[in-house]
Amino acid sequence: MRCAVRRGRRAGRRSRIGCFLPAARDRGDAGHCPRLGSLLGAAVVCAALFATGCGREAPVSEHPNVLLLCIDALRADRLGSYGGTGGASPYLDRLAASGVVFENAYSVASWTKPSVPSLLTGLYPAHHGVFDSSRHGVDVLDDGVVTLAERLASAGYRTGAFVENSHLDRRYSRLDRGFETYVENAGDAPYIVHRFFAWLERDQSASKPFFAYLHFLDVHWPYTPRREWIERELSPRQRATVIEWEVTGKRWWLLRNAVKDGLIGLGDADVQLLERLYDAEIEDTDAEIGRMLEVLAARGILDDTIVIVTADHGEGFLDHGRLDHGYGLYEELLRIPLIVWFPSGRGRGKRPAVPVQIVDVAPTIMEASGLEVAGVDGRSLMGLIEGRGGGSERPLFFEERHGSMVQLGLRAGRYKYVRTLRPSAENAPATKEFAVPADLRPGSRVQAEGIFASGRLVADEVKLIAPGDDDCELAGPLEFLDTQAGALGVLGRRVQVPLSGPALRELKLVDGTHHFRLDELHQGEWVRVHADKKGGVRVASKIERIRDKEGHEIEIEGLIGTVGVSGEHAWIELCDDRAIVSPEVRWKGVSEDRRSLRVAAAPEEPLSEELYDLVDDPREQRNLAAEEPPVLGDLRSELDRLQERYSGELKERGGVPLDRATRDRLRALGYLR
Prior knowledge:
The protein is α+β, with helices and mostly antiparallel strands. The protein folds into two domains: 17-221 and 281-394, Alkaline Phosphatase, subunit A (3-Layer(aba) Sandwich), CATH 3.40.720; 431-600, CATH 2.40.50.320. The protein is 25% helix and 27% strand. The protein contains 17 helices and 32 strands. The strands form seven sheets. Strands 2-13-9-1-8-6-7 form a seven-stranded mixed sheet, with helices on both faces. The radius of gyration is 28 Å and the shape is globular.
């Protein structure tokens, strides 16, 4: 793929890149493209030459280029420009410092499906028609909806979109309307940036401005930083934990679901580790965006380009007991960054505190591009940017629908009010059935595979195998090795290692077809430990190195003690401890006969209300619904008014059926169960 880009329409004007970009960080890959490295060098020189001109405002054309960047699942508070302290976003922070930062920007919902259509139309979900997805089908954009891309294309703009998220596939969203080029499944950030440059290069015309939409998925769960970062930044024990969680493996979804289903709890150190992985993904995406802007500046394109950076929703880190997103209308999920940068320096340094929303982005672009602002629910933010008013505070409206569940919310002044309707909870039973194979009984030998977290194996695959030895086999990263005490740790279990006598002579240390010494083992490397029970303790009889990554499965094999139920989950006793059985478990090697265990069902109310004071309680930990009746009454009435205006009665619509590949991708991303 070629990486050169066309020269800006005003190539003779000074580049203003020095106003916000730091020196390029050396990652040793020069942007993953042969020609990009030289362009980056030119960009850095360009930044140094023209940094002195940053204080002056230059004119911008009547129809400037528009570059809209959406970073999926990016919490505002992880950026330095929004108070983040992790140092993950130097490029975006410098962009923010020379642009306009909206301190209280919100999405319309807590996940991608309804939010991105609102970004690209300026409409609330009930007006664009996109709410939900299920294994039966997905909502798509209503036929009568006019997109921002269609408006700009009609005004003479060249339009292109480069997106990575199956919810945005043209067949399952119809968001390609108005885009001359719409590349779905565009890859991670480097590939998206390269595709964008190739698109720019294909048309060397200097007469048409462009509108480009880039949607990055890198920050979205699962958090899989570069291997070099993991090896450089994490301790051996932290690396072992990441492996045990399978966050970077094929079961990366299981940790999130185990927390969601209440199977395990994570401690503060666990959450901090997840946040570090998340910040590392932000850092990589930030660097790619920074390099892209450097190249645009070096070619003179940025001189006439408005850059807008935002997100479709945020991300949860147990703020309300959950990981990921899509579980409520809370601040960690709704608050998003919104940074607007003008090459003219318009609004530089402004930080409007008035609450704004993702539906305001499209009308802002329309006004900045010389189009009439009409037919949208949002309002242009150009008045706030230029300091000419238009910043009166209005209530913000939120809406989500998942099946029969409807969640509505508003932010008005210092308060947030959320109303949740769950018709299916009206007659929901207090317990539910959990089916286990009838031939799974005490004394059966099984292999249980899954993840290891919070001191427990969470198994999503249990295989019944032929009766054999009564030893225990543990496969996973070596947690510790103490040759002085004669002990090692795997999957939270301490196993004695013989240091002398007959047991030492019988200990097998196997590395493929070779043998090794015990002191050659390193913390974090994959092993399979065979342990016999002697005198009430487990003693290693064989230790195998597992070098083939295909064999890297978190696994415990042994005899079942008992099968039981605790609260909302089932478990099996295996190798002297309980292994939790995931609700999505796959049974293998068993008969079709099943017996049912009764587990508790999570209680849900048909109607629930939440009221939070965002000034005194910004993390929404104290529900005031029962304590502030007057405030609750006022906000109920206001929400009813907003619902009538922006939602009302929804027309029946049939979802577009999903093909199997897309269904699997959405299930992998956690949108389907």
